Amino acid sequence: MRDPHLTPPLRRQYLEIKRRYPDMLVLFQVGDFFEAFDEDALTLARELGLVLTTKYMGKNLRVPLAGIPVVSLTHHLRRLIERGYKVAICEQLTPPGRRLIHRDVTRVVTPGTLLEPALLEERASNYLVSFLVEDARAGVAFVEITTGEFAATEASREQAWEELTRLGPAEVLVPQSLAHAEGAKIPALTLGRAATITPLADEVFAPDLCRRALQDHFGAASLEAQPLAIRAAGAILQYLQRTQPRVVEQLDRVHSYTLDAFIALDPQTIAHLEIFQSRAGTSEGSLLAVLDRTITPMGSRRLKQWLKYPLVDLPALRERQEAVQWFLDREAIRREFRAQLGQLADLERVIGRVKSGSVTPREVVALGRSLRALAAIRALFAEDPPPLRPRLAQVIPQDTIAQLIAEALVEDPPPSLEQGGVIRAGFSKELDELRALLKNGKAYLAELEARERARTGIRSLKVGYNKVFGYYIEVTKPNLHLVPPDYIRKQTLVGAERFFTLELKEHESVVAHAEERIRELESSLFQQLCARIAEHRADILRAARALGELDVLATWAEVAAEYGYVRPQLVAEPRTVIRNGRHPVVERCLPAGQFVPNDTALSTEEAQILILTGPNLSGKSTYLRQVALITLLAQVGSFVPAEEALIGVTDRIFYRFGAEDYISQGRSSFFVEMTETAAILNRATSRSLILFDEIGRGTSTYDGLALARAVIEYLHHHPRVRARTLFATHFHELTELEQLLPRVRNFHILVVEENGELRFLHRVVPGRATRSYGVQVARLAGLPRPIIRRAEELLAEYEAQGRRALEAGRRVAERPGEYATSSLREIADRLKRLDPNLLTPIEALTMLYELKRALETSGSE
Ligand SMILES: Nc1ncnc2c1ncn2[C@@H]1O[C@H](COP(=O)(O)OP(=O)(O)OP(=O)(O)O)[C@@H](O)[C@H]1O
Ligand SMILES: [Mg+2]
Fold first, then answer.
1. 3-class SS of residue 728
2. Could you tell me the distance, in angstroms and rounded to a whole number, from the CA of residue 563 to the centre of ligand 2?
3. Is residue 741 in some structural domain?
4. Is the distance from the beta carbon of residue 614 to the nearest atom of ligand 1 less than 6 Å?
5. Structural domain count, the chain
6. Is the domain of 341 the same as that of 352?
7. For residue 614, which atom of ligand 1 is closest to its CA?
8. Ligand 1 closest atom vs CA 618
């Protein structure tokens, strides 16, 4: 081992920094390059296809080296991040001089902490999430560092998992001890993208440490009631403090939220309803694609967030509806407003970069233009309409700042500050003088050239400049004998000699100094301007958020107007009544007028369970999804594709698709189907909406039929899960249940047979389908005649047998008492789990009421 005192200073500086970031690639700035050494150099060279060399770092010391130019950092960062690396950027913090330059890590770049516009998807949020589990509870916190959104919640383990999926994070922080157990499952579960898992030492999640970190940063504790939320948020904060010292100051608020305020959507439901992505994995063909006609990036991100978090709170939903209605009624203003929004930069993200100092002059100019547009936008709503008032109140015009930007910066600045010419003439007297000096310098050189030509009589004498040698006087070989004695030789070329004079040298230093000073001055004026803008950050951010929301609301009005959506009536009772409803995505894929609208009437008191039969391709799945999507749209505050709708708010939407193929995941499809069905039955409440699309299909007919029927009976009888249910099936035997269970209704989808050909009408009507037409469809598909004939024979036999089997099952359905007992058992379980010492008096009282209510609805004494 070398004596540390003999280690050259630069090497020592590097090792010291590397020691603090052992699990990251350290990029060490040396002049115009970021260099990586040792192992990191090998990695960098391999991943980026760079040349691997060695660097001389002092006597007898050569280390592997790979470097990338400072200017192309972003480009290379993208590749490194995509490949799962974390990168610590270590910059030079003092200007180059003779002594050792001070360097430190200014930023750590990980998938969850990207700031560079080039690395971020403009219309999507990039979440950094932290997650911890303790017994049956879990804490989740998330932050979007580009917009400063920071929130945390505590929930049951199951709910927290769902929350994680819903957020679709880029990076998840987990305690080391959990990383292997829970952490390992995270990438498979998050939607659409694989999250990077970052394990942190368990201590980082320690309650006291987290509480203190939050208190020190935000002042008074903001997440009081939820201990696991505090720990999740505290861990994120500490992580950012270590990795993003410049960004973390910008977080000025963390709020807690409770998942009960939102419809719970599990990953399968989100995937099968194709809310954000179609099954093909693209956004095309998804609900989002139909709705995302937002203008601004803020609006687009907000729309996604609202779709992820449908509300259950009636007043909040009605408030959004009012705003949509207002925009719908005023087409001209709406159009003008959307045109104005088109003028806006990504205010939310740009203002973040202003504060962190990474903003470009061009972005500031665009920011200025956007701020000027705020006044025009406010002016559009001069009458201050009540439905928009709370949001408009946040849009405070920023004319002073807009004015300041306009005065300070040229209209069309170069992409980077270093290129110069950013500050407008007339803004700084000193800058103007220096620029004049440089400009006069040109005239001076021309004058000098003329003067020297006259003095020496050399007509071809030239005054020039190059980067290496500076200013010179060039004389061609044939004229060298005319050179006066005060010329000092500088450089020899093939056909000429270059000289300088004391006068020229003097000029050179004046110019160099002026240029240097101009650079300094432009940079410091720009930084001052940014600091001034940053003082208004909170206001600008609030305006940006409000405008993002208004963008969404106006977009919904636009969609409603164009696609013929209506305002649903929202009620608290568990009822759903839809007249001429349509599937928002399928209807857009068909030629106008081709989609067949259908009615729906569901209520837990009467038509609780609809059993839907109909041949393949008739539209069963489409109908189920349509009801789910209309409910979802209603509960984000949007209007819905129907002629009329009454939606009793739901607390959960479950959609299960029985024909799913899980082979790629190595799981039996039937087993998965049953696990998921169990999960639904455990979690549904009487306010839920359940859609079963052909469950029980993955096993033998009679097993499947028996299970499907037992599930329906359970949903019908069990007081807790008496949920609105749609059940699409090919088991025609199930339609017998209508006669046995009072709240079951049969519906089927009409098809007609014309000259032996099937015609799909896609109309949902009461009653059961009399035939499957499966054999018919097979004939259409060209199966040989003898097979078809034999199949027809067999079908008749099976149908007769099926009826007998159903009769045998009749007795079972008439024993609802058993379910009541099972509900008693649940109550007992809850009491057993309860620790009275941990309850506040209010909680105890609430619990008592709940238990009593549960007992009453279970129907037993
Ligand atoms: N209401 C409708 N109006 C017009 N076309 C429709 C309607 N419903 C469904 N379709 C068309 O029929 C196709 C098949 O619909 P869907 O997948 O819902 O049938 P299905 O009954 O679930 O079939 P399977 O039993 O094979 O699952 C859809 O892709 C769509 O093009
Ligand atoms: Mg189907």
1. strand
2. 25
3. yes
4. yes
5. 6
6. yes
7. 21
8. 21
Q: Note the ligand closest to the C-alpha atom of 614.
A: 1
Residue 94 lies in a domain: yes
Cβ of 729 below 6 Å from ligand 1 = no
Give the helix ranges, DSSP H, for 59-203: 73-82, 157-167, 176-179, 186-189
Query: Measured from the CB, is residue 595 less than 6 Å from ligand 1?
Result: yes
Query: Same domain, yes or no, for 464 and 507?
Result: yes
β-strand pairing of 264-265 with 149-156: unpaired
Let me know whether 139 and 73 are in one domain. no
Look at residues 529, 550, 582 and tell me which one is the last residue of a structural domain: 529
Write the residue with the smallest CA distance to atom 14 of ligand 1: 617
CATH number of the domain that residue 54 is part of: 3.40.1170.10
- The rounded Å distance from CA 617 to ligand 2 centre is 7
**Cα 697 to averaged position of ligand 1 atoms, centre (Å):** 18
Residues 662 and 586 reside in one and the same domain: yes
**What pLDDT score does 639 carry?**
98
Q: Give the Å distances, CA to CA, from 473 to 428, 447, 451, 500.
A: 34, 13, 12, 6
Q: Band the pLDDT of 358: cuts 50, 70, 90.
A: confident
Ligand nearest to the CA of 592: 1
- What is the average per-residue pLDDT within 678-707? 85
- pLDDT tens-digit profile of 34-71? 999 999 999 999 999 888 898 888 777 889 999 999 88
Do residues 573 and 279 make contact, with C-beta atoms less than 8 angstroms apart? Answer: no
d(CA 371, CA 589): 39
- Distance (Å) from CA 331 to ligand 1 centroid: 35
pLDDT in tens, 818-857: 565 666 777 777 777 777 777 777 777 777 777 777 777 6
How much distance in Å is there from the Cα of 690 to the middle of ligand 1?
19
> Is 620 found in the same domain as 717?
yes
CB 420 within 8 A of CB 518: yes
Length of the chain: 861
Give me 724's structure tokens. 């609105």
How far apart are the CA of 660 and the centre of ligand 2, in A? 11
Cβ 619 under 6 angstroms from ligand 1? yes
Residue where a domain terminates, one of 711, 737, 771: 771
pLDDT exceeds cutoff 50 at 812: no
What's the N-to-C CA distance of the chain in angstroms? 82
Ligand (nearest to CA of 599): 1
Is the predicted pLDDT of residue 861 greater than 50, yes or no? no
- The answer to whether residue 137 sits within a structural domain is yes
CB of 622 closer than 6 angstroms to any ligand 1 atom: yes
The reply to whether 709 and 588 lie within a common domain is: yes
Q: What is the CATH number of the domain that holds 374?
A: 1.10.1420.10
Residues 157 and 136 in one domain: yes
| CATH number for the domain that contains residue 699 | 3.40.50.300
Say which CATH number the domain at 172 has: 3.30.420.110
All residues with CB under 5 Å from ion ligand 2: 620-621
Coil, helix or strand for 570? strand
Answer whether 620 contacts ligand 1 (Cβ < 6 A): yes
Q: Measuring CA to CA, how many Å separate 127 from each of 73, 142, 173, 174, 318?
A: 23, 6, 11, 14, 29
CB 773 near ligand 1, within 6 Å: no
In sequence order, what are the residues at sequence separation of 6 or more whose Cβ sits closer than 8 angstroms to the Cβ of residue 197? 171, 172, 174, 179, 183, 184, 186, 187
Is 751 close to ligand 1, i.e. is its CB under 6 Å away? no
Same domain, 202 and 139: yes
Instruction: Give the range of the structural domain holding residue 336, as residue numbers without chain letter.
Output: 313-398+539-562
Is 177 in contact with 202 (CB distance < 8 Å)?
yes
pLDDT in tens, 206-258: 999 999 999 899 887 566 668 999 999 999 999 999 888 878 888 888 988 98
Instruction: Tell me, yes or no, whether 158 lies in a domain.
Output: yes
Q: Would the CB of 777 count as within 6 Å of ligand 1?
A: no
Flag whether pLDDT at 544 surpasses 50.
Answer: yes
285 Cβ inside 6 Å of ligand 1: no
616 lines ligand 1 (CB under 6 A): yes
pLDDT of residue 689: 97
Q: Which pLDDT score, from 0 to 100, does residue 663 have?
A: 47
